[in-house]
Amino acid sequence: MKEKEIGFRGKLYLKKMPEEGEFKRVHAVLVIDDGRILLRYKNGEARTTGGRIEVGDRSLEETLRRELREEINCEIDRCEYLGYLEAELSDIGEREVEYWARMVARVSRIGEPKADSDRENNWIYGRVLAPPEVAKEELTKAMPMGDTDKLVDYALKVAREKEYFTELPSNEYETLNVEAHD
Of the N and C termini of the chain, which has fewer Cβ atoms inside 10 Å? Predict the structure, then answer.
C-alpha cells in the first residue's frame, strides 16, 4: 500500500490534549538563544522538524530528539508541549484522522549537515536560521494546515516565558546549508 498523502485539512488545538486517540507524530518549532527559528527545507519548502512516533519511543520528547538527530543533526536542551494538530490524511477513497503533537524546543547544538537515515538518495535537508516573521511567512507558504501563524506566535510566547532566549534578538537570516540529494 502506498503512503497516505496529507490533505489540506487540519485543525490546531493549543493548550489541549486529544480527547481520544494517541499521537502518531511530533513536530517542533525550533528556536535558538537569539530568538531566531531553525527551519528545515524539504523540496525547497520550509517545514517544522519531527516525525512519526516509533515503537520503543518512550515520550514525545524522546521521539523529537531522535527525529532532530536523524533529519537535521541538531540537539535540544529544553522543550515544551504546545498542543496538537488534528490532521486529516487521505488516500484513494479513504480518510483517516491522526493527532500530531506540537512543541517548542530550544536548540543547543547544530551539527554538520548529514543525510537523513530514513530517506533514500543521500537526502540532506536544507537548514536556515530565520527571524520569526520570516519563519512564519515561509512556514505558512509550505504548511497550509493548522494556522501556522498562531502556532509560531504561541511557541515564541512560551519560549519567552520559559526563558529560552539568553542573547540579544537577531534579525539575521542565515543559511546553514542548502538541500541536497542524489
Answer: N
144 pLDDT above the threshold of 60: no
Q: Would the pTM of this model clear 0.70, i.e. be above it?
A: yes
Radius of gyration for the alpha carbons in the chain, expressed in angstroms and rounded: 16
Sign of the torsion angle spanned by Cα atoms 136, 16, 53, 25: negative
Q: Is 137 exposed, middle or buried (0-12, 13-18, 19+ CB in 10 A)?
A: middle
Domain containing residue 76: CATH number: 3.90.79.10
∠ CA 124-81-135, rounded to 5°: 45
Q: How far apart are CA 104 and CA 174, in angstroms?
A: 20
Q: Which of 16-25, 51-60, 117-126 has the lowest mean pLDDT?
A: 117-126
What domain range includes position 96? 5-177
